[in-house]
Write a structure and sequence with these properties.
The structure is a single chain. The chain is an alpha/beta fold. It has 8 helices and 5 strands. Helix 5 (162-173) packs antiparallel against helix 8.
Length: 210
């Protein structure tokens, strides 16, 4: 039985090393790392990514798949939920680094199955909502720049990735403290406070530098 960590890196602010460090800090031990580098999470399905295809080739019953968050496993609600269920049907256990969630297809109790499936649906929907928010912020920023018709000072390069903005807001909404959020996402407390002060400004800044 193998444990595989899957990482997706789509921006310069994200690194495989950081995701590996986060997994180890969460107490997770893995045998292999499969990576998709420079791949957009909101446009390309998991099965269409090189690393994603490798996951489907490698994972067998009894194996464990570790991901930073469920949004790593697809580009939208349907893709994420379908992939999680496809892996569970194979007998693969899925674990997330953030919040330490576990999705196991071996559950036999109907109530446990119902709660698990409802949670999968909710998390997949949340992932899509985060992706849609990012895309809308990008569109707004691009439109604003075109209207001005001039080169705009971008300000200091942000120390956070686009996908981390919604994760900060979500984790705080779940009652996580700023220190805990910063530790989970590999950010400074000052950065977390800056994002929380104005998520829309944070999106605009990340989009501009992207």
């Amino acid at each position: 039985m193998a444990t595989i960590l899957y990482t997706r890196v789509s921006t310069a602010e994200q690194t495989v090393e950081h995701q590996v460090t986060q997994a180890r800090a969460a107490g997770l031990v893995f045998d292999q790392v499969v990576t998709d580098d420079g791949v957009s999470g909101v446009t390309i399905k998991l099965a269409d990514r090189e690393g994603g295809r490798r996951l489907f080739d490698l994972l067998r019953s009894g194996d464990t798949l570790v991901v930073r968050w469920v949004d790593r496993l697809g580009r939208n609600y349907e893709d994420v939920s379908d992939n999680i269920r496809a892996f569970m049907r194979r007998g693969v256990v899925i674990k997330t680094i953030i919040n330490g969630m576990t999705f196991d297809g071996a559950a036999a109790d109907p109530m446990t199955q119902a709660v698990r499936d409802a949670l999968i649906g909710f998390m997949a929907a949340l992932s899509q909502a985060q992706a849609e928010a990012t895309k809308e912020a990008q569109k707004a920023g691009i439109a604003h720049a075109k209207e001005r018709g001039e080169k705009v000072y971008l300000g200091r390069k942000p120390s956070f990735a686009e996908n981390q903005i919604n994760q900060v807001v979500t984790l705080r909404g779940e009652g996580k403290g700023v220190t805990e959020v910063a530790k989970q996402l590999g950010l400074s407390r000052a950065t977390v406070y800056r994002i929380l002060k104005s998520p829309s400004d944070a999106h605009a800044s990340a989009m501009a530098w992207r």
